[in-house]
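re: the backbone from monday

yeah here it is again, tokenized this time
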């Protein structure tokens, strides 16, 4: 995946927020944590370029091990179950859940080490072949990019619908507006 991680994290966070709303978690904070989690595995690119010099595929680093993200989800779930104040565990769950989503999306067109660190064997549904220079053109011209465009378009549609909805339900907003006009 090249461009779809952040929009996918946005979509999942918007769809799961009603579950967290009961916990009195601020919507913007929830969305930010979810979107940060969706791109967090790629923070290893800093190490990839500045330290490793691109010698190893960045999907072979621990931040791209699905087990790490599964453990984070499990730890957040346990924290949620044992905590009286569930705001922080909810944020941890959306962060880690979207990190795990990142693994699933990468699996569509890249190698993911599903069994790491126990078995360092890469798995992929399909691989993007290295045909073009610069490297990102290979992703742009690969059939999986259609899914990325669909994810981005869906995120834009969700964003548009959220912005066009009134902040209050119409039934609650109407009496206030009527009372204000008659005064």
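seq for it, each position gets an aa:
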């Amino acid at each position: 995946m090249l461009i779809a991680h952040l929009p996918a994290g946005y979509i999942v966070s918007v769809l799961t927020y009603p579950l967290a709303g009961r916990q009195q978690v601020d919507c913007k904070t929830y969305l930010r944590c979810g979107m940060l989690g969706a791109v967090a595995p790629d923070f290893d690119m800093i190490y990839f370029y500045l330290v490793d010099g691109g010698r190893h595929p960045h999907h072979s680093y621990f931040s791209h091990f699905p087990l790490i993200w599964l453990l984070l989800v499990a730890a957040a779930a346990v924290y949620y179950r044992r905590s009286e104040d569930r705001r922080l565990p909810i944020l941890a769950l959306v962060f880690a859940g979207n990190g795990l989503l990142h693994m699933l999306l990468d699996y569509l067109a890249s190698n993911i080490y599903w069994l790491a660190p126990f078995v360092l064997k890469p798995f992929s549904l399909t691989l993007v072949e290295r045909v073009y220079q610069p490297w990102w053109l290979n992703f742009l011209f690969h059939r999986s990019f259609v899914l990325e465009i669909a994810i981005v378009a869906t995120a834009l549609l969700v964003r548009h619908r959220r912005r066009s909805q009134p902040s209050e339900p119409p039934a609650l907003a109407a009496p206030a507006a009527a009372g204000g006009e008659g005064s």
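The two ends are 56 Å apart (CA to CA). The first helix runs from residue 5 to 21.
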